[in-house]
Automatic annotation (TrEMBL):
Signal peptide span: 1-27
Keywords for this protein: Signal, Transport
InterPro entries associated with the record: OM_porin_bac, Porin_dom_sf
Source organism: Ectopseudomonas mendocina
Name by which UniProt lists this protein: OprD family outer membrane porin
Assigned protein family: Belongs to the outer membrane porin (Opr) (TC 1.B.25) family.
The keyword Hydrolase is annotated on this UniProt entry: no
Length: 473
């Protein structure tokens, strides 16, 4: 259930959300003590300055994307009523305020453009503010929980983006069950996705389908079918998912997940999480294999011509945008004292890019190579990565951390031949440990992308985030 600024005035937005959660609560014969005693309420304040420097220009507009905003997000989580079946409800409400946002998107006379933090006005400038609210009714039976409403999933088949002042949300039903010891099962269906810079949920799509064309076809396909595929942008309102994590022992967790977006793709993921004591440190591993194939209209030529397609490189003249990707990865991390060392490799096979729910408005590919300014999810791509982190507690500065990540991809397939790309990320974080400001958090991220891929641009992106969570109960 949602209330948005689009349908309500500012004054009544929060009132609608609070009324809904109270009504849901009192629908029970008795407002049991657990409902209130186990509740949690907090207010998150997040300030984000975003700057993306496209040194070679950006589209028809300027070479720089900048925006600065302040977000306020209220999170209220109830407990459950007493009895065999418990009932509860959660509330999430958000308000975003623009502090600065450059010029108008696509304005050739401005070097500064609005970025990714706010929705657009009709003249392509950023709105001054935006807001939304969701109420999630929930039911608990034994060790199984059912929640309907807005979710921020963190699964290896779908993951909500949380890097802006507002999070991405997925609307639908999610079931989580822990009836069997050491086994966690999740299942459900999402009907809509709400982007980070939006007040409303929309139907879901995948990379390339949101533009209705595929720009990475082979020369044979271009000659046969023309410079771009006919059709209009297509979407889906059914994303089915199932997942399981089984803890064999403290050192090994086995995983299986399945995703299906109707008329676009089906995806299987098998994996394992490991943790071993090695010398004086701990070595962890994240192993994954994805097998993605077309579903419904995406599997037919007529459906592809309608726009049910995915980006990639198609070496034959039979398919134009059918999902066909197999991606395997391994990421290791070794923590020794204040130091953390990491290394990983990812291998992509098939004609298409890796697929995930993606409306083109800021999404996360749920793979270990998705990092701030790039995803390394292209057809045929081979990606190496190395990581290093340092905890300054060892030098007497608790709360201060440094991280460096470098990724290099090669053999990314395109009509112009295999291409390379690389990313370097440097980040510093600091959380105040004492005083009345305990929990105040600062983060600086700076990412640089260099790419040979057609249509992509080199960039240097800087994000400065300040966050403070105030517990209200």
């Amino acid at each position: 259930m949602s209330c948005t600024k689009k349908s309500l005035g500012n004054a009544s937005l929060l009132s609608c959300a609070v009324t809904a959660i109270v009504c849901t609560s009192f629908a029970q014969p008795v407002l049991a003590s657990g409902f209130l005693d186990d509740s949690q309420v907090s207010l998150r304040l997040r300030n984000l300055y975003y700057d993306n420097d496209f040194r070679s220009g950006h589209g028809s507009g300027g070479s720089r994307l900048t925006e600065w905003g302040q977000g306020f997000m209220l999170n209220a989580r109830s407990g459950y009523t007493e009895g065999t079946v418990g009932f509860g409800a959660d509330l999430t409400a958000f308000y975003g305020l623009k502090l600065d946002s450059g010029g108008k998107a696509g304005d050739p006379n401005s070097s500064r453009q609005p970025a990714i933090l706010f929705p657009r006005e009709t003249d392509n400038s950023s709105v001054d503010d935006f807001s939304w609210a969701y109420v999630n009714p929930k039911i608990r039976f034994s060790k199984t929980e059912i929640v309907y409403g807005a979710h921020q999933p963190r699964m290896p088949i779908v993951q909500a983006s949380t890097g802006s002042i507002a999070p991405q949300l997925f609307e639908g039903t999610m079931i989580t069950s822990r009836e069997i010891d050491d086994l966690t099962i999740v299942a459900g269906m999402f009907e809509k996705s709400k982007g980070r810079a939006s007040s409303d949920g929309i139907s879901m799509s995948i990379n390339a389908a949101n533009t209705g064309r595929n720009g990475y076809r082979s020369p044979a396909n271009v000659a046969k079918y023309g410079a771009q595929i006919p059709g209009t942008p297509q979407d889906s309102n059914k994303f089915w998912f199932f997942g399981s994590d089984y803890v064999v022992d403290p050192s090994l967790t086995l995983r299986y997940y399945y995703a299906q977006m109707d008329d676009f793709y089906s995806q299987h993921m098998i994996g394992a999480l490991t943790s071993w004591k090695v010398g004086d440190g701990v070595l962890t591993g994240d192993f994954r294999h994805y097998d993605s194939s077309g579903h419904g209209k995406n599997r037919s030529f007529d459906g592809q011509m309608e726009g049910y397609l995915v980006s990639g490189f198609y070496a034959n003249d039979v398919t134009l945008g059918e999902v066909d990707n197999q991606l395997t990865s391994a990421l290791f991390s070794y923590k020794y004292g204040a130091h953390t060392f990491g290394a990983g490799y990812q291998h992509s096979e098939g004609d298409s890019d890796f697929v995930w729910p993606n409306q083109g408005d800021g999404s996360i590919a749920p793979i270990t190579s998705d990092i701030q300014v790039n995803k390394f999810a292209r057809a045929g791509e081979r990606t190496w990565q190395v990581r290093y982190g340092y905890d300054f507690t060892a030098l007497g500065v608790p709360g201060l951390n440094f991280n460096w990540i470098y990724l290099k991809g090669s053999n990314a397939l395109s009509a112009a031949g295999p291409k390379k790309e690389q990313v370097q990320i440097v980040s510093m974080t600091y959380a105040v440990q004492e005083s009345a400001l305990k929990g105040l958090f600062f983060r600086l991220d700076r990412g640089a992308l260099k790419t040979e891929f057609p249509g992509a641009r080199d960039m240097t992106e800087t994000r400065l985030t300040t966050e403070y969570v105030i517990p209200l109960k």
